[in-house]
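Incident log, support desk, overnight shift.

02:14 A customer reports that sequence design results differ from what the structure should imply. Their input is reproduced verbatim below. On-call engineer (initials T.W.) acknowledged and began investigating.
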């Protein structure tokens, strides 16, 4: 896809299954199970969508998926088929060494896991050896000092090597990281969760991260059980979706398995809807 002079590609690290109750929070299963049919263990199928942005001569990657280093137990719980991001980059003609920046929406393992991998000797190393890795300081603090509720989503092996390699940059609030490429703090899912907006020639594209993981989460009250601050998610969704309709944003969803790209619509009763577009 072309947004002004930026080239934008949807990439994927693979698929996982996640508990449907966790993914839809207080929404009754009878409402979500038609949209996302669960397996016999109540898990719904998610894709690990990442985005490649080529802007200002830089190759910028948004999120990294789960990666390939998880143990058998974790693979089993989440039915992981992951670690495909480097190959998908290769299909777009890029080697990991050619990535200049990696932006994390947040450091949960399904977004940061692909940033590190184990070499043949079993040692951890950074997947993108030349890239600066950007995350909000607030999310870094949560990831490195989680409470018992947030701890399950963070794996130190995903991000500790970035600091050791001096490839970590902590952001304090909204930051323009390349011409027209903005990291914008939303909070909600985690206190330091951020989205990325691409703003060029009067057009905007938005990667929502886990604030709105699929188009099925467009209803403002469809929040995840994993959201640490669900009321903040609702307020931010309403604000951003209202703008997305008015300004015709191209929106990109991180966990949508079928149609990760499209435009938000609004019905007369105020509810948000959706029109898929070509990825
Ligand atoms: Zn996620």
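02:41 Re-run completed on a clean worker. Output:
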């Amino acid at each position: 896809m072309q947004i002004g002079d930026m080239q934008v590609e949807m990439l994927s690290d693979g698929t996982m299954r996640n508990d449907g109750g966790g993914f839809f929070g207080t929404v009754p299963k009878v409402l979500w199970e038609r949209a996302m049919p669960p397996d016999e263990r109540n898990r719904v199928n998610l894709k690990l969508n990442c985005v490649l942005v080529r802007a200002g001569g830089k190759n910028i990657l948004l999120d990294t998926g789960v990666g390939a280093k998880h143990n058998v137990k974790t693979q089993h719980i989440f039915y992981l088929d992951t670690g495909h991001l480097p190959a998908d980059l290769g299909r777009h003609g890029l080697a990991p060494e050619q990535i200049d920046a990696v932006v994390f929406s947040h450091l949960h393992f399904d977004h940061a896991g692909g940033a590190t991998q184990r070499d043949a000797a079993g040692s951890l190393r950074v997947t993108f050896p030349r890239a600066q890795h950007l995350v909000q300081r607030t999310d870094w603090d949560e990831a490195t000092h989680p409470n018992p509720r947030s701890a399950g989503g963070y794996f130190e092996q995903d991000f500790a090597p970035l600091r050791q390699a001096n490839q970590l940059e902590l952001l304090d609030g909204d930051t323009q990281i390349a011409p027209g490429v903005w990291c914008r703090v939303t909070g909600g899912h985690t206190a330091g969760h951020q989205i990325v907006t691409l703003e060029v020639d009067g057009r905007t594209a938005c990667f929502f991260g886990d604030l709105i993981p699929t188009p099925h989460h467009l209803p403002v009250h469809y929040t995840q059980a994993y959201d640490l601050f669900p009321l903040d998610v609702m307020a931010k969704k309403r604000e951003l979706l209202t703008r997305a309709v008015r300004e015709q944003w191209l929106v990109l969803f991180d966990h949508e398995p079928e149609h990760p790209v499209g435009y938000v619509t609004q019905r007369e009763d105020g509810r948000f809807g959706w029109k898929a577009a070509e990825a």
